[in-house]
Design a protein that fits this description.
The complex is a heterodimer.
Chain A lengths: L1 H4 L1 H19 L5 H20 L4 E3 L4 E3 L1 H27 L6 H18 L3 H19 L6 H32 L4 H7 L8 H17 L8 H8 L2 H7 L2 H15 L6 H23 L5 H22 L2 H26 L2 E2 L2 E2 L9 H4 L1 H15 L5 H15 L3 H27 L11 H16 L4 H15 L2
Antiparallel strand pairs in A: 1-2, 3-4
Chain B lengths: L1 H23 L1 H28 L5 E11 L2 E9 L1 H24 L6 H20 L3 H19 L6 H32 L4 H11 L3 E4 L2 E4 H16 L8 H4 L5 H10 L4 H8 L1 H4 L3 H22 L5 H21 L3 H28 L17 H15 L5 H15 L3 H29 L7 H6 L5 H26 L3 H5 L11 H5 L4 H24 L3 H8 L1 H8 L4 H29 L1 H19 L5 H22 L2
Antiparallel strand pairs in B: 1-2, 3-4
Helix pairs in contact in B: 1-2, 1-4, 2-3, 2-4, 3-4, 3-10, 3-15, 3-20, 4-5, 5-6, 5-10, 6-8, 8-11, 8-13, 10-15, 11-15, 13-14, 13-18, 14-15, 14-17, 14-18, 15-16, 15-17, 15-20, 16-18, 16-20, 17-18, 17-20, 17-23, 18-23, 24-25
The chains are: A mainly alpha, B mainly alpha.
Amino acid sequence: MNWISALPELVLACAGMAILVFGVLAPKNAFRLASMFTIAAFLITAMLVMGGTTSLGYSGLFSSDAFSQFVKLLILAAATLGVIVSLDYSEHENMQRFEFPVLILLSTVGMMLMASAANLMSLYLGVELMSLSIYVLAAFARDNLRSAEAGLKYFVLGALASGLLLYGISLVYGFSGSMNFADLSAELTSASQASTGVTIGVVFIVAGLAFKVSAVPFHMWTPDVYEGAPTPVTAFMGTAPKVAAMALLVRLLSGPFAHLLAQWQQLIVLVAIASMLLGSLAAIGQKNIKRLMAYSSIGHMGYALVGLAAGTPLGVKGVLIYLVTYVFMNVGTFACILAMRRRGRAVEGIADLAGLAKTDLGMALWLAIFMFSMAGIPPFSGFWGKLFIFQAAVTQGMWVLAVIGVLTSVIGAYYYIRIIKVMFFDDAAEAFDARPASLSFVAVAGGLFTTGFFLFAAPVEAAALAAAKVIFG
Amino acid sequence: MLYALAVFAPLVGSLIALLFGRQIGDRAAQTVTIAGMVLASICGVSSFVDLIYSGVPAGVISLGTWVEAGSFHVEWALRYDALSAVMVAMVTCVATLIHIYSAGYMAHDNTIWKFFSYLSLFTFAMLMLVTADNLLQLFFGWEGVGLASYLLIGYYYDRPSAGAAAMKAFIVNRVGDLGFALGIALLFMVFGTISFDGIFAAVSQHQNDSYHLFGTDFRALEVIGVLLFIGAMGKSAQLGLHVWLPDAMEGPTPVSALIHAATMVTAGVFLMARMSPLMEYAPYALGFVCFMGASTALFAATIGCVQNDIKRVIAYSTCSQLGYMFIAAGVGAYQASVFHLLTHAFFKALLFLSAGSVIHAMSEEQDIRKMGGIWKKIPLTYTVMFIGSLALGGVYPFAGYYSKDAILEAAYAAHTGVGAYGFWCGLIAAGLTAFYSWRLLILTFHGAPRADQHTMDHVHESPWVMTVPLILLAVGAVLAGVMFHEQLLGEHWEHFWGESIKLNPANKVLEHMEHVPGWVRLAPSVIGLAGIALAYIIYMGMPALPARVAAAFGPLYRFLLNKWYFDELYNAIIVRPLFCLARGLWQVGDATIIDGVPNSVASLTGASSGQVVKLQTGSIANYAFAMLIGVVALVSIFLIFLR
């Protein structure tokens, strides 16, 4: 019954092919219809995911469990919102080609595969499927020099990261004799037994995946690619792939390599601290809001890694909740950024937001909510994400990590709140063009989630905890 | 029901005037508050009459729970007994008259609605204070009158001196209030309750409890008594904490009459009487009370003899009279102290309001050196002020005669050292009181006019809204003593006071008062008349003499004129060091350290942000290099440190 456990992925992949065929055969430009079909496919897949069972298929290559369900639903939500925010932009910027939603769909299949990977090989396939689609997406506005540069940069560096990942996998395989997570877990029962080859292999795998979550020092591509890529692509890149890669890191490190905790923990701690510091410091001087969001996401991934570093179910629960809050506030913020359009031209400067409260109070309020949430100010969801993460770290006695996390979020609050200051207290600039309904919808959805999260935190928390327990067996 | 109405009618009036005063206009706000006060005084007087003459039983009117926290239980409740009822009746009556008087006095003001709202708010707070059934509610009223007093002293907020005086009153009162709050806390610690009934029932159980303080064991009741009295000292302007009262004369004159003469300042005396069942078991605290009261009575009277501001003379007189009340409380004659409180309320309000009438007539002039020769022009004011002075001076048969004599007799009859101190201080102060009262009268009304012609031409009697309250208060100043003397202090005082004042069985002061020697009875009157005579001789007979005397006794005169240099002393030892400390904390602590550290951290952060961003060159080769370096670094750390 292999196909049952992978039913959502199979359905989604087939839908992707069908939409592709439809797009080719359709008499006129099929961008909008293809997007709608994609969204429909995502929704159907999400329902299939929710109805899924716990099983291990394809000779242990593919695992469907509470953890993968949780992550997949989040990925699908992010991807759906990503398609919605792209609708208006693509038409404005003359990139309304039906391949766009299909590429998002294919990368989503890759991400879902990553979430379910139970073998280093299926892991690699998932990562590559996701990445290749995104390389193309980043360069999708092919007439635009910056977009092409971003795509190329991402591709070259991504290839390097892929190489690191693959090399790490081969080292682990070579020194332990298995690529299957269950077998690896049985093999590597204590830190002292692990051979140097395996541990170096783990470092390489972590490096490869750290590239995907843009953790320091593998983050260098992020600001350039975020800035250069078409904004809806940036919005998509900033959410779903991060979730998938982070989930993969969690599953890998807390699963097969769980017994090497003492070794990789310090590694993750270092990477987390570096990411939090860089994310908060480098963002201060930014004038382009997309670049700022790039550094912001580096910082956020640093916080999520803190939960992973704790190495407990509580920590993993924190990571998952953090990702949930992160996705919604991030996609909401990007919806606002996409709405920054003056006389038909998209603008990206922070200064362009000046006095937004006077010209468009609604948007200013939503953006202010997202910024407060990212800064971790209660009662918004960002606060709860950080709370669970730091709680897990403190429970494990990792005071230094928690204190650095709090300090960097204070620094981070500076640039988030500066945006609010610009919007509410600076002299009003020229008003933006009218917002399309699709962007308002995403901003409001994200805003409501961010604001109201504390009202329904308990079920999310319970689901996250159940998912986390799966990893720890 | 009537009783509750008496308490809450002023609140309603105040709220209406405060919230809607701007909309409904000055006249309506004034009418509403005065109507509320008239209603309150009718209710207040009738509930007093009910209790004392119609035999309605005393009790507690519960209004609901206020605080319910563990063993700490506080209720909103109105206490209905003789002490509260007599205070309610007095406060509502005097306040009503002063409200009416204010309608005339403040006629030219711009924010009449605000003034009346504050005045009614004050009355409500004062009523809360006197009807409280527990110490917290009393404290609520206590702070409420403090707030209203602050607002009213600073009513002319565009005058810097009024603002300063308001702040001074508030801050000095904080010192006393700290003592009071500590006293309440200690009471709760010892008794486990702060309701009066609970405390009084348990006094005998706790009379030997001790409280460890400064390395010594004190009797807890003594400590409580002293702390409560420190609170009373602040409110009632006793020596040391008196400095705010003369400055408080910056407020409008009706305010001085209501708050700083008749009602609020007597709250301390009321507190002593209210806590009498407890104070009775704290003899040393009582001794302290008597000592401070006697000292204040004499001290303030000496200053009153040389002041030149008509209101300040009366203010120091108030301070001195409050001292008398504490002498009586300190020797255990609470009845006498409350009696003097009552009579004093009438004649001191009368004096203040007459002074207001004089000021009104003299085109806002307050310096008595610039008055004189106006008694024929404002005969009514002159008459009532004369009556007030007779009452204050303790001349038979005016109100002050009965109450002041009673206090001095009680002090003598106590047969204690501190009682004797109280008696002699009080006796000398009685002479001085009579002297400065007539000095004030003569300088204000008699002799050659010293004001300019323009002012003199405008001297006129006040309108009826101001004179009618004066006449009514004058009636009170004449009759209050005769009417209540027998009831409050006579053989059957227990019939009047009921349970509200409970004495230690060993306290026989009231009985001993009946048996003091004849000269003790006569002495106050004799010395008072001598003071009056002296004032006549000096100021009527030889107007040039005062200046010569002042020149001859230069240092003493300046010492008194400068109020014993209390303000200067406090400035030097408290205010200025505190300013220095505050300035130090501000400039060094706040501006340099507290602001400096985050500011430099912030600029450091900004600078490091610049450095971090420099790594972002845009070149793929650099980025790839950074990644590889990263991997190498991580592997090295892994192999070197974590194996």
